[in-house]
Amino acid sequence: MQERKNVQHKVFTGIVTSAKMPKTLVVKVEKVKKHPKYLKFYTVHSKFKVHYTSGTYAHGDKVSFIECRPLSKDKRWRIFKKH
Fold first, then answer.
1. pLDDT at 1
2. Pfam families recorded for this chain (predicted)?
3. What's the number of CA atoms in the CB half-sphere (13 Å) around residue 59?
């Protein structure tokens, strides 16, 4: 019998930027980084396509999403909770 390992999935929190596709949201995640030489803080962002099955989401909603198996070419994330 094989033992199952507990896998810790990545969880991100971001703002919904597009809710126009069926069962797909585009979520923007921002993080603050520090330049190694000049020690200046700057903001970088990434956009993720996130899958959802139920609920209503609009532009500007804050959501958390979790890593999952590939659902399509670009979607590897699913909604975890709405804040």
1. 62
2. Ribosomal_S17
3. 4
Buried b (16+ CB within 10 A) or exposed e, 17-35: eebeeeebbbbeeeeeeee
Q: Which residue has the tokens 């990434």?
A: 46
Sign, Cα dihedral of 63, 27, 8, 23: positive
Structural domains in the chain, CATH included, are 11-82 (2.40.50.140)
Question: Does residue 38 register a pLDDT over 90?
Answer: yes
Q: Is the pLDDT of residue 56 over 70?
A: yes
Mean of per-residue pLDDT scores for the chain: 94
